Hints:
By secondary structure, the chain is an all-alpha fold. The protein is built from six helices and no strands.
Amino acid sequence: MTGVLSGLIAALAVIMGSFWLFCLATFFGGSYAAVVLSFRFAAADCVEPEWRPRALSIVMAGGVAAGVVGPQLVTYTMNLWPPHMFAATFIAQAGVAILSAIVLAGVRLPMPTIAERSGGRPFR
């Protein structure tokens, strides 16, 4: 949701010419990036040990693909709305976040064991 909010608020900020609204959009963008960057750790922790290398490889390959697709997305969308350069790029970014949410909706995480739920250190 923060990825969608980030893209839509940034597009609105570009259209309105509001620096402070754009700063708010980057706050949500940072939250979105923090979650996305933790996926590789979730991939390692949520699969059986024999599947761990494959899961990490898929996540890392996704990062490489994003490094190619992201800049191309900017190149092809930055001038789609001529009076507001990059507004369409931020709308496209929100669309990519929606697509990511749809893909992640199909991921089923394993339930923690009783030992994992009851273990750990006391809060103090």
